[in-house]
Amino acid sequence: MGLVKRLKAAYDVCVGSEEITQDERERIHFYLAVRSIVYKLTKGDAPDTAQMNQKGA
């Protein structure tokens, strides 16, 4: 979790740079999305699958 947080901070500084390739941007967004999901599932009050399915229906 800490490494992805550092990645986000570095990305925020470099986001406007032309040196970051599209592939690198996609990988960064992937890691940020995975971190977000893991954080939401482990923070303690995450909904279970039944609750998520009920909201999605």
Automatic annotation (TrEMBL):
Type I restriction enzyme HindI endonuclease subunit-like C-terminal domain segment(s): 2-53
InterPro entries: T1RH-like_C
Listed name of the protein: Domain of uncharacterized function (DUF3387)
Pfam families: T1RH-like_C
Species in which this protein is naturally found: Hafnia alvei
